[in-house]
Write a structure and sequence with these properties.
This protein is mostly helical and 227 residues long. It folds into 2 domains: 105 residues, Helix-hairpin-Helix base-excision DNA repair enzymes (C-terminal) (Endonuclease Iii, domain 2, Orthogonal Bundle), CATH 1.10.1670.10; 108 residues, Endonuclease III, domain 1. 58% of the residues lie in helices and 0% in strands. It is globular, with a radius of gyration of 18 Å. The N and C termini lie far apart (43 Å).
């Protein structure tokens, strides 16, 4: 999908700096999750991304392997008793609502014979396929450099480059453009995972570990701590 991405020239070197340092950090310190392995089915990848929305990865990791064993395909999930799906999702919270949405997604995918459309509008018309999941499909399934922009990625970007202006991260052009440029790299998946892991382990929301941060020399947020 073609996108015109405009980023100030002054940010180009900072983007390269961020990419290089985070990839090096991820290689040594990144988290390892089942759904990041190669060779999984499209179903397995998408289910993981749906479950990960607004939920800690460590929480999903506890039951994800059992979930895809119990519900190995779109059809098995679509035909399952809703209560059995809810049972697996209890650790997530709001499990009743999310279980119903997962099953609705599965039923839609069964109707589509498991085929995911490349057209973005068609993709987002599928239940539970908003901007984030749409980007995840492009990234993981279609191997396109799309960013997994959630509050965690937004936090790293804003601290490093400066804050956004709009409240909703989905529609802020400054944040979205930077996110696309950061993952515009041959290792787009690894950069996405590196940013998310860095947000979880180092650039945390309440107590960021700035003292040992590898990108602090160019970080806007860190520069304000000493002023």
């Amino acid at each position: 999908m073609d996108r015109v991405i405009e980023v100030a020239l002054s940010n180009v070197e900072e983007i390269k700096f961020l990419q290089g340092h985070l990839l090096s950090w991820y290689k040594k310190s990144g988290r390892r999750f089942y759904w990041r392995k190669s060779g999984l089915s499209q179903y397995q990848y998408i289910i993981a991304e749906v479950l990960l929305q607004r939920t800690k990865a460590e929480t999903i990791a506890k039951f994800y392997p059992d979930f895809i064993t119990e519900f190995p395909t779109w059809r098995s999930l679509a035909n399952s008793d809703l209560a059995s799906i809810e049972l697996f999702l209890r650790p997530v919270g709001l499990y009743t609502q999310r279980a119903a949405r997962l099953q609705n997604l599965a039923k839609e995918m069964v109707k589509r014979n498991g085929r995911l459309p490349r057209d973005r509008a068609d993709l987002e018309s599928i239940p539970f396929m908003g901007q984030y999941i749409g980007n995840a499909v492009e990234l993981v399934i279609f191997n396109e450099p799309s960013p997994l922009v959630d509050v965690n990625m937004a936090r790293v970007i804003e601290r490093f480059f400066g804050p956004r202006k709009m409240a909703d991260i989905r529609y802020d052009p400054y944040l979205q453009n930077l996110a696309y440029k950061i993952v515009d790299h041959p290792k787009a998946k690894h950069i996405n995972w590196a940013v998310l892991d860095f947000a979880a382990l180092i650039c945390q929301s309440r107590r960021p570990k700035c003292g040992g941060c590898i990108i602090r020399s160019k970080c806007v947020y860190f520069s304000t701590l000493n002023t």
